[in-house]
Specification:
The protein is of the alpha/beta class. Helices cover about 35% and strands about 20% of the residues. It is built from 13 helices and 14 strands. Strands 1, 2, 3, 4, 5, 6, 8, 11, 12 and 13 form a 10-stranded mixed β-sheet that branches. A two-stranded antiparallel sheet has the order 7-14. Helix 2 links the parallel strand 2 and strand 3. Helix 1 packs across helix 10 and helix 8 packs across helix 11. The protein is globular.
Amino acid sequence: MRVTAVTCVKNEGPFLLEWVAYNRLIGVTHFLFYTNDCSDGTDALLDAMGDYGVTRLPNPAEGRNYQMEALKHAARHPLVTGADWVWVADVDEFLNIHAGDHTLPALIEACGDPQAVSVTFQFFANDGIETYEDRPVIEQFTHTHNPDLWCAETAIEVKTLVRRDFPLHYYGAHRPFCRDRPRVAPPVWTDGSGRPVPPKFLKAANPRRMRKFPAAGARHHATLNHYALRSLDSYIVKNDRGDVNREGRAFGDTYWRERNDSAWEDQSILRHLPALHAALAKMKCGPLGALHEASVAAHRARRDALLTDPAFAKMHGQLKALPPYPPGEPELMTELGLA
């Protein structure tokens, strides 16, 4: 089965080997990366990963929505048109498959071989980790919000695995959009438990439901582990980099607090850790090892430089002092006398 992962990156060098190695373990065969003005060695590292199915292209967007322009380009690329399945995701997102042998074929079989599978996010907290470490992200961060609730929301965003015969109009970052064809049956489309996605989501009938639906009961076969924060060091560098997907978006206090809920622990993805460590050790034996180390050094150097900037130093201190609760929860705890 030929599976192509499509993603956009900017200055993600220290995290690339893990993401590629992990996705190869679960069954991804090819990778199409779009890069935006990288300065940490990301481009050089990706260009050296051809033996691992990696192709890198400069993002074709010019001051527009970077991700959507890349996805428009990707839809015509041979790595996508020739794939059996396409997986659009970011490098801080890891598809955690619970079904069978924990691979993509097992997920597809468990869901009844549909034309699309939308898997629900689970946001992994910072866990109080301040310092960047060069070891797998999935190993370091194991705490998360209640899987069925995020802040005050019962509906949580998804990312979607898309089969070749899906009646595609265009790829979105979170889900594909169907061609409007009268008298043609809608695609067979399930959630991560193999249940049909809600009709409003399938038809994108309500803009607020285009990228999400209720999370309760949607994770039986798979979860999308989203490590949006990582260490405090890396979050500061992420703020400096900005959003790889669209121009002008900043991260900050609210983004951090919404994703730093450590109420639950979920170690299920660690089932892949021994194989991941072995794969990374093999990848680092050759030239990739030196390129990876260069990206790690650039990441740490950028952190050090940012912490000499008063604005970033202030942000670092403020984030470090925040309680590990989502917005509204500390106030509610005080009101209820639980604080």
